[in-house]
Amino acid sequence: MSIRFILVATSHPGNIGAAARAMKNMDLDELVLVRPAAFPHAEATSMASGADDLLQRARVVATLAEAIADCGLVYGTSARTRSRYYWPGFTPRLAAPRLLATGAGGHAAVVFGPERTGLSNEELEQCHALIQIPASAAYDSLNLAQAVQVVAYEIHCARGLPLPPERDAPPAAADELERLYEHLDAVLREIDFTDRGGGPHLLRRLRRIFGRAELDQQEVNILRGILAAVQSRRRRAGVAP
Fold it and tell me: Mean pLDDT throughout 116-137?
């Protein structure tokens, strides 16, 4: 089983250690750090309290895209409500079986943002959906290690429960989806189907449509085949890209 917990731009090294401890409590051991402010660090080791092995194996990368490149399902955690764009959302309890089903045959990931700001819109666009932890409407702010503990606990509790039906084809990995989006953007520009204002909003909405669909590898290949056919037809018609 591969369920990866990814911490993005963590500012306090103690939170990394506390998150590792929470993961080890729940039999999760794959930790990836994106641009941590300080790591390795003595405070991280101290707060890990016996989960030093997770810290030693933790992978440090420069971008979220690198951290999720081989993941077929990526959930971002967020407490904020975004009204302008729609992201599908799950509680940790509902998300856990889906993560386990993908992680059983591939890689799934849960992404946690910086302590002060959380994940940016651009980072959430790289996720299929949100995990939102139910909390008090008057005070819904959990610290990073608390959020990691809650999600890890629900994954632990969901082990042994019936998993969602197996898919016909493996889910498309994040890097395959990125290549699809790049291809789609190129074709939209070739046919001059772009935002009237020239901004990125059209592609962002398309990313969300495909993100909600949780495309598999065959579906990505079909879509890219359609895009390639459009480009080929335009070239045969003598239309410059």
Answer: 91
